Amino acid sequence: MPTYEPSDWYRTPLYYDIIFDEGTRREADFLQAVFEWYGGAAVGRVLEPACGTGRLMAELGRRGCEVSGFDVSLPMLEFAGGRLDDANVAGELKQARLERFHYRKRFDFAHCLVSTFLYLADEAAARDHLQRMARSLRPGGVYVLGLHLTDYDDRGRTRERWVGQRDGVDVVCNVQAWPADRRKRAQQVRSRLVVQADGATRRYQTQWTFRTYSERQLRRLLASVPTLEHVATYNFHHDVEQLVSLGDGELDKVLVLRRRDG
After folding, report:
1. Mean pLDDT, to the nearest integer, of 49-59?
2. In the predicted model, what is the mean pLDDT of the chain?
3. Is 9 left (phi over 0), alpha (psi -120 to 50) or beta?
4. For 88-97, what is the mean pLDDT?
5. Which of 6, 12, 111, 115 has the smallest number of Cβ neighbours within 10 A?
6. Which pLDDT score, from 0 to 100, does residue 262 have?
7. Average pLDDT over residues 128-153
């Protein structure tokens, strides 16, 4: 059985970027459509919490948005800075946590599509994040938030696989999630990267814990932040013309939250 080196995949931003870059244009198309439908414009001042490698910042910046982003990972921020430079995009980057950030300026839009929200380990931190997002948006501003809901009755493991290649570097990513602990509201997740480059194969493994939300638990959290109004729900197909219901049984959700006036 192959051996995997314990690692933090946020410390290998190139491999992370290779895996997720394929969907960048489609996600940017979706975000701009959501911004226009629910916020009144396709471009504006945009904030990305947990901006990672900056792929969406660079893409939206090329399309005319004024982009800012923050992340807790310095390697990710350094990579993002290079990506913005390569795209000739003058974005703003800073290090901050999801539940501990502040901007003086106000944004028209914000987005966080890839379940990073689930790293917030308790209800207080999740609420702090949403409240800070509301304060960071102008009245009528839109926050697009993607996350996986949890079916506590499903006792099987889930698996996802991505494959990417760039400049002679091949990356295979396998992510496995174990059944959620209903009492602790926690789920163990593991990623394994197999990287082939320069004639060598390297294997990395990262493990983490996500906080879990059923539909009811998510609705309760959203109700505790009345400055944000839940105005629409989509799935991970990112098709702005295909609205779904939060309670339809599908677990992959994208919420459109709008800052209330006042």
Report:
1. 98
2. 97
3. alpha
4. 98
5. 6
6. 65
7. 98
- Evaluate whether 93 touches 81 at the Cβ level (below 8 Å): yes
Contacts of 249 (CB under 8 A, 6+ apart): none
- Identify the three-state secondary structure at position 221: helix
Helix (H, G, I), strand (E, B) or coil at 162: strand
Residues 6+ apart with CB under 8 A from 25: 59
Beta strand 200-211 with 5-6 is parallel
Distance CA 155, CA 200 (A): 37
| CA 246 – CA 25 distance, rounded (Å) | 25
Percentage of the residues of the chain whose pLDDT score is greater than 90 = 97
**pLDDT at residue 134 in the model:** 98
Superfamily for the 9-150+212-259 domain: Vaccinia Virus protein VP39 (3.40.50.150)
Per DSSP, the residues of 108-137 read: EEEEE-SSGGGG--SHHHHHHHHHHHHHHE
pLDDT at residue 1 in the model: 78
Question: Is 187 in contact with 210 (CB distance < 8 Å)?
Answer: yes
Parse the chain into domains and list their residue ranges: 9-150+212-259, 151-211
Q: Which CATH number fits domain 151-211: 3.90.1100.10, 3.90.600.10, 2.20.25.110, 3.40.50.11810?
A: 2.20.25.110
pLDDT value, residue 261: 86
| Long-range Cβ pairs for the range 203-208 (8 Å, 24+) | 203/2, 203/3, 203/4, 203/5, 204/4, 204/5, 204/6, 204/7, 204/9, 204/12, 204/15, 205/4, 205/5, 205/6, 205/7, 206/6, 206/7, 206/8, 206/9, 208/119
Mean pLDDT, to the nearest integer, of 160-182? 97
